[in-house]
Amino acid sequence: WCRFLLAALVSPMKVGLRMDFSVLLEPLGFVKVLEWVFAIFAFATCGGFQGETALLVSCEGVVNKTVTAAFTYPFRLNTVVFSAPDPKGCGGTWTDAYLIGNFSSSAQFFVTLAALVFLYCIAALVVYIGYNHVYQQNNKFPLTDLTISVLTAFLWLVSTFVWAKALAGIKVSTGASIVPGIESCKAPGTTCHFLSVTSMGILNVSVVFGLLNMILWAGNVWLVYKDTNLHSQWNRISESP
Protein backbone atom coordinates (compact mmCIF):
# COMPACT_ATOMS: atom_id res chain seq x y z
CA TRP A 1 0.00 0.00 0.00
CA CYS A 2 2.68 2.52 0.97
CA ARG A 3 4.71 1.77 -2.17
CA PHE A 4 1.63 1.99 -4.34
CA LEU A 5 0.46 5.25 -2.77
CA LEU A 6 3.92 6.81 -3.13
CA ALA A 7 3.99 5.90 -6.81
CA ALA A 8 0.49 7.26 -7.23
CA LEU A 9 1.41 10.59 -5.69
CA VAL A 10 4.63 10.93 -7.69
CA SER A 11 3.29 9.89 -11.07
CA PRO A 12 -0.53 9.78 -11.01
CA MET A 13 -0.82 9.57 -14.81
CA LYS A 14 1.28 6.41 -14.97
CA VAL A 15 -0.76 4.65 -12.31
CA GLY A 16 -4.02 5.85 -13.85
CA LEU A 17 -5.65 8.46 -11.65
CA ARG A 18 -9.45 8.38 -11.99
CA MET A 19 -11.23 10.55 -9.46
CA ASP A 20 -14.52 8.97 -8.44
CA PHE A 21 -16.19 10.33 -5.32
CA SER A 22 -19.19 8.03 -5.74
CA VAL A 23 -17.20 5.39 -3.84
CA LEU A 24 -17.87 7.43 -0.69
CA LEU A 25 -21.57 6.56 -1.04
CA GLU A 26 -20.73 2.86 -1.08
CA PRO A 27 -20.37 0.95 2.22
CA LEU A 28 -16.59 0.53 1.95
CA GLY A 29 -15.92 4.22 1.35
CA PHE A 30 -18.60 5.50 3.72
CA VAL A 31 -17.35 3.37 6.61
CA LYS A 32 -13.81 4.59 5.97
CA VAL A 33 -14.98 8.19 6.30
CA LEU A 34 -16.68 7.31 9.60
CA GLU A 35 -13.49 5.64 10.82
CA TRP A 36 -11.54 8.77 9.92
CA VAL A 37 -13.97 11.02 11.81
CA PHE A 38 -14.23 8.77 14.87
CA ALA A 39 -10.43 8.50 15.07
CA ILE A 40 -10.29 12.30 15.28
CA PHE A 41 -12.82 12.33 18.12
CA ALA A 42 -10.99 9.56 20.00
CA PHE A 43 -7.73 11.50 19.67
CA ALA A 44 -9.24 14.84 20.67
CA THR A 45 -11.34 13.69 23.64
CA CYS A 46 -8.41 11.92 25.30
CA GLY A 47 -5.40 13.94 24.18
CA GLY A 48 -7.02 17.33 24.72
CA PHE A 49 -8.18 16.86 28.31
CA GLN A 50 -7.13 19.30 31.07
CA GLY A 51 -8.32 19.04 34.65
CA GLU A 52 -7.48 19.74 38.26
CA THR A 53 -8.30 18.43 41.68
CA ALA A 54 -8.70 20.80 44.63
CA LEU A 55 -8.40 20.56 48.42
CA LEU A 56 -9.49 22.94 51.18
CA VAL A 57 -6.59 23.34 53.64
CA SER A 58 -6.40 24.94 57.07
CA CYS A 59 -3.09 25.16 58.93
CA GLU A 60 -0.89 27.61 60.86
CA GLY A 61 -1.83 31.10 59.66
CA VAL A 62 -4.09 29.75 56.90
CA VAL A 63 -7.84 29.17 57.00
CA ASN A 64 -9.72 27.33 54.28
CA LYS A 65 -7.14 27.89 51.57
CA THR A 66 -7.81 26.15 48.23
CA VAL A 67 -4.83 24.22 46.88
CA THR A 68 -4.96 22.65 43.44
CA ALA A 69 -3.12 20.07 41.35
CA ALA A 70 -3.56 20.45 37.58
CA PHE A 71 -3.23 17.33 35.44
CA THR A 72 -3.52 16.66 31.73
CA TYR A 73 -2.65 14.14 29.02
CA PRO A 74 -0.62 11.88 29.19
CA PHE A 75 -1.66 11.63 32.87
CA ARG A 76 1.69 11.23 34.64
CA LEU A 77 -0.01 12.02 37.93
CA ASN A 78 3.07 11.20 40.01
CA THR A 79 4.68 14.36 38.61
CA VAL A 80 1.73 16.60 39.51
CA VAL A 81 2.16 18.57 42.74
CA PHE A 82 -0.38 20.50 44.81
CA SER A 83 0.16 24.23 45.14
CA ALA A 84 1.35 25.37 48.59
CA PRO A 85 -1.28 26.91 50.90
CA ASP A 86 0.93 29.96 51.56
CA PRO A 87 4.51 31.19 50.97
CA LYS A 88 5.57 29.97 54.42
CA GLY A 89 4.23 26.47 53.80
CA CYS A 90 2.02 26.40 56.87
CA GLY A 91 4.89 27.39 59.13
CA GLY A 92 7.19 24.83 57.52
CA THR A 93 4.88 21.86 58.04
CA TRP A 94 3.72 21.67 54.41
CA THR A 95 5.87 19.66 52.01
CA ASP A 96 5.31 18.99 48.33
CA ALA A 97 2.32 16.69 47.91
CA TYR A 98 2.04 14.70 44.67
CA LEU A 99 -0.77 12.74 43.13
CA ILE A 100 -0.27 8.99 42.77
CA GLY A 101 0.02 6.93 39.60
CA ASN A 102 1.42 7.06 36.08
CA PHE A 103 -1.14 6.24 33.39
CA SER A 104 0.82 7.62 30.44
CA SER A 105 1.45 4.29 28.70
CA SER A 106 -2.26 3.46 28.42
CA ALA A 107 -3.24 6.98 27.36
CA GLN A 108 -0.45 7.25 24.79
CA PHE A 109 -1.26 3.81 23.36
CA PHE A 110 -4.87 4.91 22.81
CA VAL A 111 -4.00 8.33 21.34
CA THR A 112 -1.18 7.01 19.15
CA LEU A 113 -3.46 4.36 17.67
CA ALA A 114 -6.07 7.03 16.92
CA ALA A 115 -3.44 9.19 15.18
CA LEU A 116 -2.15 6.27 13.08
CA VAL A 117 -5.68 5.24 12.12
CA PHE A 118 -6.40 8.83 11.11
CA LEU A 119 -3.40 8.81 8.74
CA TYR A 120 -4.21 5.38 7.35
CA CYS A 121 -7.81 6.39 6.62
CA ILE A 122 -6.54 9.36 4.59
CA ALA A 123 -4.25 7.07 2.57
CA ALA A 124 -7.05 4.54 2.06
CA LEU A 125 -9.50 7.21 0.92
CA VAL A 126 -6.95 8.50 -1.62
CA VAL A 127 -6.75 4.99 -3.06
CA TYR A 128 -10.52 4.42 -2.96
CA ILE A 129 -11.32 7.73 -4.67
CA GLY A 130 -8.47 8.04 -7.14
CA TYR A 131 -7.41 4.47 -7.85
CA ASN A 132 -10.43 2.32 -7.11
CA HIS A 133 -10.09 0.58 -10.49
CA VAL A 134 -6.55 -0.50 -9.58
CA TYR A 135 -7.71 -1.56 -6.10
CA GLN A 136 -10.43 -3.76 -7.57
CA GLN A 137 -8.23 -5.32 -10.26
CA ASN A 138 -5.23 -6.19 -8.09
CA ASN A 139 -6.17 -8.57 -5.28
CA LYS A 140 -3.03 -7.69 -3.30
CA PHE A 141 -4.51 -4.37 -2.24
CA PRO A 142 -7.77 -5.80 -0.81
CA LEU A 143 -5.78 -8.52 0.99
CA THR A 144 -3.47 -5.91 2.50
CA ASP A 145 -6.48 -3.80 3.44
CA LEU A 146 -8.09 -6.85 5.04
CA THR A 147 -5.00 -7.64 7.11
CA ILE A 148 -4.73 -4.06 8.33
CA SER A 149 -8.45 -3.95 9.16
CA VAL A 150 -8.27 -7.13 11.27
CA LEU A 151 -5.19 -5.85 13.12
CA THR A 152 -6.73 -2.40 13.67
CA ALA A 153 -9.99 -3.83 15.04
CA PHE A 154 -7.98 -5.93 17.49
CA LEU A 155 -5.82 -2.96 18.53
CA TRP A 156 -8.91 -0.81 19.12
CA LEU A 157 -10.30 -3.56 21.35
CA VAL A 158 -7.10 -3.80 23.39
CA SER A 159 -6.34 -0.08 23.61
CA THR A 160 -9.91 0.83 24.58
CA PHE A 161 -10.10 -1.61 27.46
CA VAL A 162 -6.59 -0.69 28.62
CA TRP A 163 -7.50 2.99 28.51
CA ALA A 164 -10.83 2.36 30.29
CA LYS A 165 -8.95 0.62 33.12
CA ALA A 166 -6.47 3.49 33.30
CA LEU A 167 -9.31 6.02 33.40
CA ALA A 168 -10.80 4.24 36.40
CA GLY A 169 -7.41 4.57 38.11
CA ILE A 170 -7.20 8.26 37.22
CA LYS A 171 -10.59 8.89 38.82
CA VAL A 172 -9.45 7.18 42.03
CA SER A 173 -6.10 9.00 42.08
CA THR A 174 -7.73 12.42 41.73
CA GLY A 175 -10.81 11.83 43.89
CA ALA A 176 -11.63 12.16 47.58
CA SER A 177 -9.59 9.08 48.51
CA ILE A 178 -6.32 11.00 47.99
CA VAL A 179 -6.62 13.01 51.23
CA PRO A 180 -5.57 10.25 53.70
CA GLY A 181 -2.41 9.63 51.68
CA ILE A 182 -1.11 13.23 51.83
CA GLU A 183 1.51 13.45 54.56
CA SER A 184 1.28 17.25 54.85
CA CYS A 185 -2.36 16.93 55.86
CA LYS A 186 -1.33 14.78 58.83
CA ALA A 187 0.78 17.53 60.41
CA PRO A 188 -0.41 18.83 63.81
CA GLY A 189 -2.92 21.66 63.41
CA THR A 190 -3.45 20.94 59.69
CA THR A 191 -6.75 19.76 58.22
CA CYS A 192 -7.52 18.94 54.60
CA HIS A 193 -10.89 18.42 52.98
CA PHE A 194 -11.52 17.29 49.44
CA LEU A 195 -13.15 20.11 47.48
CA SER A 196 -13.64 19.13 43.83
CA VAL A 197 -12.21 17.54 40.71
CA THR A 198 -12.83 18.42 37.08
CA SER A 199 -15.56 16.36 35.48
CA MET A 200 -14.15 13.54 33.36
CA GLY A 201 -17.20 13.09 31.20
CA ILE A 202 -15.15 13.89 28.08
CA LEU A 203 -12.77 11.05 28.95
CA ASN A 204 -15.74 8.72 29.30
CA VAL A 205 -16.72 9.82 25.80
CA SER A 206 -13.24 8.89 24.55
CA VAL A 207 -13.82 5.31 25.76
CA VAL A 208 -17.14 5.26 23.90
CA PHE A 209 -15.41 6.41 20.71
CA GLY A 210 -12.85 3.68 21.22
CA LEU A 211 -15.62 1.08 21.32
CA LEU A 212 -17.31 2.63 18.28
CA ASN A 213 -14.04 2.50 16.38
CA MET A 214 -13.64 -1.15 17.29
CA ILE A 215 -17.15 -1.92 15.99
CA LEU A 216 -16.56 0.06 12.80
CA TRP A 217 -13.31 -1.70 12.03
CA ALA A 218 -14.82 -5.10 12.79
CA GLY A 219 -17.56 -4.32 10.27
CA ASN A 220 -14.95 -3.05 7.85
CA VAL A 221 -13.28 -6.46 7.94
CA TRP A 222 -16.37 -8.00 6.33
CA LEU A 223 -16.67 -5.24 3.73
CA VAL A 224 -13.03 -5.62 2.67
CA TYR A 225 -13.23 -9.42 2.79
CA LYS A 226 -15.94 -9.37 0.12
CA ASP A 227 -13.49 -7.60 -2.25
CA THR A 228 -10.85 -10.32 -1.91
CA ASN A 229 -10.51 -13.57 -3.83
CA LEU A 230 -10.95 -15.39 -0.52
CA HIS A 231 -14.65 -14.55 -0.63
CA SER A 232 -15.07 -15.65 -4.25
CA GLN A 233 -13.17 -18.87 -3.60
CA TRP A 234 -15.40 -19.67 -0.63
CA ASN A 235 -18.49 -19.03 -2.73
CA ARG A 236 -17.24 -21.43 -5.40
CA ILE A 237 -16.54 -24.10 -2.79
CA SER A 238 -19.93 -23.69 -1.11
CA GLU A 239 -21.75 -23.83 -4.47
CA SER A 240 -19.89 -26.88 -5.78
CA PRO A 241 -21.72 -30.29 -5.48
Structure characterization notes:
With 241 residues, the protein is mainly alpha-helical. It has one domain (22-239). Helices cover 59% and strands 12% of the residues. It contains 9 helices and 3 strands. A 3-stranded antiparallel beta sheet has the order 2-1-3, with no helix packed on it. Strand 1 and strand 2 form a beta hairpin. Helix 5 (104-130) runs antiparallel to helix 7 (140-173) and helix 7 runs antiparallel to helix 8 (201-225). The protein is rod-shaped and about 80 Å long.
Q: Topology of this structure?
A:
Elements: H1 2-10, H2 12-15, H3 27-47, E1 50-59, E2 62-72, H4 89-92, H5 104-130, H6 132-137, H7 140-173, E3 191-197, H8 201-225, H9 229-239
Antiparallel strand pairs: 1-2, 1-3
Helix pairs in contact: 3-5, 3-8, 5-7, 7-8
Keywords: Glycoprotein, Membrane, Transmembrane, Transmembrane helix
Subcellular location: Membrane
Domain MARVEL: 23-229
